[in-house]
Amino acid sequence: MKWTTEEIMKMDKFKRINIINSITGIKPANLIGTRSRSGATNLAIFTSVFHMGSKPPFIGMLFRPDKDVRRHTLENIRETRQYTINHVNDQIIEQSHYTSAKFDAGVSEFEGCGFKEEYIEGFSAPFVQESKIKIGLTLEEEIPISLNDTIIVVGQIEHIIIEGNCLMENGYIDLENSQSVGVSGLNSYYSLNKKKDLPYARVEEMPDFKAR
Amino acid sequence: MKWTTEEIMKMDKFKRINIINSITGIKPANLIGTRSRSGATNLAIFTSVFHMGSKPPFIGMLFRPDKDVRRHTLENIRETRQYTINHVNDQIIEQSHYTSAKFDAGVSEFEGCGFKEEYIEGFSAPFVQESKIKIGLTLEEEIPISLNDTIIVVGQIEHIIIEGNCLMENGYIDLENSQSVGVSGLNSYYSLNKKKDLPYARVEEMPDFKAR
């Protein structure tokens, strides 16, 4: 099937949003933990976290426009400049998904969705105890995208917590052992199965693909 | 295991890069197809493609600094303002990986890695015939990130091509049927297995997680 943008924009609204939301491929499922200045914790699932650089170690995250709805995660990051990124794994998919429900003011998603808060000394944002891969970050910069009023929040990694068998000798995280999951669109969760570790790509060591 | 950034920065260079590169979780594997003004095609694997918005339909992509090395993909996008994003699937993992090798000038990665070019009338950038999910985009804006000299290229979707059984009734792409793959770091490829489709999250319809 082929469509032009014009044809896509004429589709049923939800179908259109679902196609556009899932067309880029798999997205990482992460829980963002924050705390307001007054001490209230917040936890929210995001699929917009992306690697931005290794030196310094920067991670980016896209936020939707904050015009109409209150964005507690973004407000808390602005207030305290600290936040955590925690991988969603196989065992906590449903709990994680429901952090996106609209809880009453004063109810933390940690409590509402059955997660335990975990802390590192000298760092105020809450980690998710049930997660096996966790990152603590400080806000480095907000980049407003005028094109569509989204905001890219760039954070610098301050702390990394990795559970036992998830880190390989060479520094790679084994996403099968960490049981980390991916998301397509907003609602479809996928488990990850390692297929292949390939070497750094050199022309001299390349298989002959032309012969296929 | 817990590390602070200070401890991470003291690690062996490659181990450090691998940890930072894989810590955000799964990334989508996509082939970017471009053509120079003089007609030479180029194909390169990227894991930095991300959803930016549905209306208008924008897709972002992070490019590393273009100081030292020539970035043919970015040069071609600047010249022609057109490019394609093509999902890597199970059958073309190795071919796709080797598009990152340094080919001699004048050798297209389409040829070198055994891919067939596919075209849509009125659109100059090449699609990858072997891919099941393909997007044709026009350059909307380049956003320079001064923090670390990376560049975010924002494209607007112009064409979408989806093979037979990959699109669900509601508009979701079934990444298991499309056999799309994910990447951890630079070299580890993962296949995707659908675990769960969850409904839009409403507090009233939520399971009782506290009782666990």
* Outline of chain A: globular
Number of domains of chain A: 1
Q: In order across it, which strands form the biggest sheet of chain A?
A: 4-3-7-10-11-6-5
Gyration radius of chain A, to the nearest Å?
19 Å
Instruction: State the secondary-structure class of chain A.
Output: alpha+beta
Cα distance, first to last residue of chain A? 27 Å
CATH topology of chain A: Pnp Oxidase, Chain A
Classify the beta-strand content of chain A into a percent band.
35-45%
CATH class of chain A: Mainly Beta
E-strand count of chain A: 13
- Biggest chain pair interface: A-B, 117 and 117 residues
Oligomeric category: homodimer
CATH superfamily of chain A: Electron Transport, Fmn-binding Protein, Chain A
Mean pLDDT of chain A: 93
Topology:
The structure is a homodimer of 212-residue chains.
Chain A: E1 2-4, H1 5-9, H2 13-22, E2 27-28, E3 30-35, E4 41-46, E5 49-54, E6 57-63, H3 72-80, E7 82-87, H4 93-97, H5 109-112, E8 117-120, E9 123-128, E10 133-145, E11 150-162, E12 181-184, E13 188-197
Antiparallel strand pairs in A: 2-12, 3-4, 3-7, 5-6, 6-11, 7-10, 8-9, 10-11, 12-13
Give a quick set of tags describing it:
homodimer; 212 residues; alpha+beta; Pnp Oxidase, Chain A; seven-stranded antiparallel beta sheet; three-stranded antiparallel beta sheet; 13 strands; 16% helix; 41% strand; globular
